[in-house]
Design a protein that fits this description.
This protein is of the alpha+beta class. About 30% of the residues are buried. The chain is about 25% helix and about 30% strand. It has one domain (about 20-175): Aminopeptidase (3-Layer(aba) Sandwich). The protein has a 7-stranded mixed beta sheet, with helices on both faces. Pathway: Amine and polyamine biosynthesis; ectoine biosynthesis; L-ectoine from L-aspartate 4-semialdehyde: step 2/3. InterPro entries: Acyl_CoA_acyltransferase, Ectoine_EctA, GNAT_dom.
Length: about 180
């Protein structure tokens, strides 16, 4: 479900309860908040602010921003794979440290699934040491009756710069609605 600023959030699957956060597609201007959240995440690769502004503009339909008290506190940036448009690839997801553990990330993913009836598959990549992200996607798969497989994708030697751990492909198939 998508909520505009004029319409308060309603209960959703990940929380099972109401919430004071609004979940909505980003506008281009929200790229700035996404860049700040990514910068402060302590985990994500920080891309240029230009990249977040363009992604927010061009991939708004497959991305979401969580807003609390007028501030962006979490985001997910995704796109439909051009060669497999039933597959939503999650490029980055992050929640401000002050809001973690409150199912905000789960709500962001659930909102995308609810609004994108064409997707049956979700993919993302996660490093082996990111337990929070692994649990986030495993929980999402369980919640929607889907299967999750993990395979090698981006190995350390693929990265031209130093300091990248291998990114494993998490592929979630058979997503069910209304669960
Ligand atoms: C990963 C991240 C987005 C999760 O956001 P969040 O809003 O705190 O996650 P949620 O509250 O929706 O929790 C989702 C699930 O993960 C679990 N989880 C959350 N943080 C966890 C942690 N640190 N360790 C283990 N499990 C964790 C929750 O218990 C929940 O599981 P459940 O559904 O079985 O109860 C957040 O930790 C973050 O921004 N991390 C830094 C950026 C990052 O690593 N992004 C992912 C890159 S692939």
């Amino acid at each position: 479900m998508t909520h505009s600023a004029d319409h308060p959030s309603t209960p959703d699957q990940a929380t099972g309860a109401g919430s004071d956060l609004d979940i909505r597609p980003p506008a281009m201007e929200d790229g700035a908040a996404m860049w700040r959240i990514a910068r402060d995440s302590g985990t994500l690769d920080l891309n240029t602010s230009y990249a977040y502004l363009l992604m927010a503009r061009d991939f708004a339909a497959t991305s979401r921003l969580a807003v609390g008290d007028g501030q962006g506190v979490g985001f997910v940036l995704g796109y439909l794979r051009p060669t497999a448009p039933e597959t939503l690839f999650i490029w980055q997801i992050a929640v401000d440290a002050s809001q973690r553990g409150k199912k905000v990330a789960g709500r962001l993913l659930d909102d995308l699934l609810a609004e994108l009836p064409e997707i049956t598959t979700l993919e993302t990549t996660i490093t082996a040491d990111n337990a929070a992200s692994q649990r986030l996607f495993a929980s999402f798969a369980e919640r929607h009756g889907a299967d999750e497989e993990v395979a090698d994708l981006l190995e350390e030697h693929h990265f031209p710069d130093d300091g990248h751990g291998a990114e494993l492909l998490h592929r979630i198939t058979g997503l069910q609605r209304g669960r």
